Amino acid sequence: xxxxxxxxxxxxxxxxxxxxxxxxxxxxxxxxxxxxxxxxxxxxxxxxxxxxxxxxxxxxxxxxxxxxxxxxxxxxxxxxxxxxxxxxxxxxxxxxxxxxxxxxxxxxxxxxxxxxxxxxxxxxxxxxxxxxxxxxxxxxxxxxxxxxxxxxxxxxxxxxxxxxxxxxxxxxxxxxxxxxxxxxxxxxxxxxxxxxxxxxxxxxxxxxxxxxxxxxxxxxxxxxxxxxxxxxxxxxxxxxxxxxxxxxxxxxxxxxxxxxxxxxxxxxxxxxxxxxxxxxxxxxxxxxxxxxxxxxxxxxxxxxxxxxxxxxxxxxxxxxxxxxxxxxxxxxxxxxxxxxxxxxxxxxxxxxxxxxxxxxxxxxxxxxxxxxxxxxxxxxxxxxxxxxxxxxxxxxxxxxxxxxxxxxxxxxxxxxxxxxxxxxxxxxxxxxxxxxxxxxxxxxxxxxxxxxxxxxxxxxxxxxxxxxxxxxxxxxxxxxxxxxxxxxxxxxxxxxxxxxxxxxxxxxxxxxxxxxxxxxxxxxxxxxxxxxxxxxxxxxxxxxxxxxxxxxxxxxxxxxxxxxxxxxxxxxxxxxxxxxxxxxxxxxxxxxxxxxxxxxxxxxxxxxxxxxxxxxxxxxxxxxxx
Length: 626
What we know:
- 55% of the residues lie in helices and 17% in strands.
- The protein is of the alpha+beta class.
- Strands 3-2-5-11-8-9 form a 6-stranded antiparallel sheet, with no helix packed on it. Strands 14-15-16-18-17 form a 5-stranded mixed sheet. The chain has a 4-stranded antiparallel sheet with strand order 1-13-6-10, with helices on one face.
- Helix 10 packs antiparallel against helix 12 (515-535).
- The two termini are 77 Å apart.
C-alpha cells in the first residue's frame, strides 16, 4: 500500500471514530428527539409551568439567543417490553452541563451546576440506571440543563435503552472526544519540555524556541476540550482559551519562517498586530459580544495557518520530498478540521457534530513519527553505505600503508646497497686498485721482467675497473655505463695497433637493470672487443634503440670487426667458452644475442655481435631465444 493510501485509510478511521455513533433501532435503544422546555431555576423537577414543545437538537442561540441559566427538559418514553437489567440514558451533546431524573428519581449529573459550571460542551454524558425505574406505562425523563447567557446552550437528541446497546457508542464517542484530547495535552506537554531542552542545548536556536511556544499555546487550547472542572470563572477561561488559539495559529506562521530560514519582518509585524487584536477583543469586549467577535478574529487569523503550512511544505519539498507528501496530507486535514470547528462556532455544522481540532496534535505527531521512521530508514541505509565505504577506505589505506612500508623498506634496502657498493668501490679502488697500479709500476721499471707479467697486470687492472664502473651509482644508465667502458676498452684496442669507431646514441632508460645486469652487458661487450683484438684489424661499436620482431621496445649494442668472419660451427663447439658465456649473459638479461658474418661496408668481411635488451622486463620473466 502506498503512503498516500495509508493516510487515506487513517483519516477515514479517525473521522469514523469522531462521528456520532448510530444506535437507532439497535438492541431496543430509542432516540428521543421531541421534548418540552421550561426555563426555571428549580432544583427539583417542576410539576407545573408553561412548558414549551421543542424538537431536538434545541439550539438556544437560534431560538432564544438572550436566554441563559437553568432550564428543564421533559421527555416521555413508554415502558419497555422487559423492564429488567440495566438501562442507560445517553446524552451525545449538551452545552454546558446537565443532570437527569427518571420518574422523579435522580440518576446522575455531569458535574457542577453552579459557577464555574462543569465544562461539558465536548463531553458525552452517560447515566446507567435500573430498568425497574421505568415501571409506568408512560415514563418521564427530566433533564436539568445549565447554559451561560450569550453562550451556546444546546441539547441534542437523547438516547435511552439497554446498557449493552448504548455503552459501546458512548465509549467510542468518549474516547474520540475526551481521551484524544487528554492525549493531545500530554503530548503537547512532552513536546514543550523536549523543545525547550533542545532550545537550551542548541544555544537558543529560534526553531526550537518557537516550536515550544506553538506547542504550549495549543496545549492551553487542548485543555478546553476535556477539562471539566475549570480553575477560574467561565468567562475568564474563555478569554484565555480563544487568544491562545489565535496565538497558536500566528506563532505557527512565525515558526514556519524560522524552520524555512526566511526573514520577513513586515509579515511578522502584521502577525504581532493580529495577536494584539485577539487579546484586545478577548479582554475588552463584554460577554454579550465576545463570541461573535472572537469567531470573526478566528476567521481572520486562519489564513496564517494556511500561509505557515504552505511555507513548511515548500521547504520540506526542497529538502525532503518524501516527507513533504506526508506533511501536505496532514496539513490539508488539519486545515479541514479547523474549518469544520469554525463552522461549529458559527452554528453552520450539523447538529451534534464533534469538535475535530483535538485530533490535530495526534495526527501531526503521527505524521512526524512516520517521517522520522522514513528518515531513520534512509539514515540507516546511508550509514550502511558509509560503513561499507569506510571499511573499503580502511582496507585501501591499509594496503597503501603496506605499500608505503614496502617502498620504504625497498628504499632503505637500496640505500644500504648503494652505500655498500660505494664502500666496495672505494675499497677496491684504494686497496686492490692501488696495489695493482704499484705492481704494474714495479714490473715496468724492471727491464728484465717478462712483458707478459705487465700485460697480465694491466688486464687485471682493467677488469677490476670494469667491475668498479658497474657498481658506480652515477653510471646506472646504460649509455653512461657504456661511455665509461669506452675509456677502459679503447687503450686495449689502440695498444694492439687497431682503430676504434664508437657510434653511441642516447638510449632509453632501463630502470629494471641493476649493477649485476650492467656488469653482464659490459662483460659481453668486453668479450666481443677482446675477440676483435685477437682476430681482426679494426672494430666499430654502435648503439641504438629499436623494437624486436614481436614489436616490444628495446635497445641494441653492436660490435663489428673487419676480420675474416667466424665459422658457424666455431660458435657452438665445446671449446668456445667465450661465446657460450656471452649467450648465457644475454639470457640472464632476458635479451637476445646474435652473432653473424657480414660484408662490412668499407671494412671488407667480418663478424657482427649484436646484443638486444628489452626496455622493460617481459611479463612473467619469459626468456627470449638467442
